[in-house]
């Protein structure tokens, strides 16, 4: 899974704004209402954003629990070196509450929020620009478009935050991504690299 790229988000926002500006002008010329989301959409934006952010926090808490358990195992091995480490089926299983695939889905949901937020914000920038030039900045549609621009930007921020919550930094990869047999190495003897939620990429 690739990381969010601010450049792509900027391109999406610019293309959406450039598309919304002539679209709004054409519809206004035909007497059709401006193609903007209603203010009630802010409730949906806020609800979905809170859910995705909450899932990201849950993944991060689960990851921290796994890191703490791995650290306790290593500390016990250092304090009692005479005790051979248990492997395979005899090794203690981490108390995982979030499955790695679910964590990856949370990352995907966060990234989808970021892309959708860039699209929503960019589109309403175009709508607000045209309506501000024709109806004035005090028009109700302009005010609602500005609020939706802020809502879209918040979605973008949530996307980046969730991505970071579900990411294992390289300097903690070996400590956090212990394999199922209780060791810090993968099946091929290699150390886990930076990735999302338990070293998945």
UniProtKB/TrEMBL annotation:
Region called Disordered, residue ranges: 66-97, 172-201
Keywords: Membrane, Transmembrane, Transmembrane helix
Keyword Nucleotide-binding among UniProt keywords: no
InterPro entries tied to this protein: DUF3180
Basic and acidic residues compositional bias, start-end: 66-93, 188-201
The keyword Membrane is annotated on this UniProt entry: yes
Residue stretches spanning the membrane: 36-59, 103-125, 145-162
Pfam families, per database record: DUF3180
Protein name in the entry: DUF3180 domain-containing protein
Organism: Nesterenkonia halobia
Lineage: Bacteria, Bacillati, Actinomycetota, Actinomycetes, Micrococcales
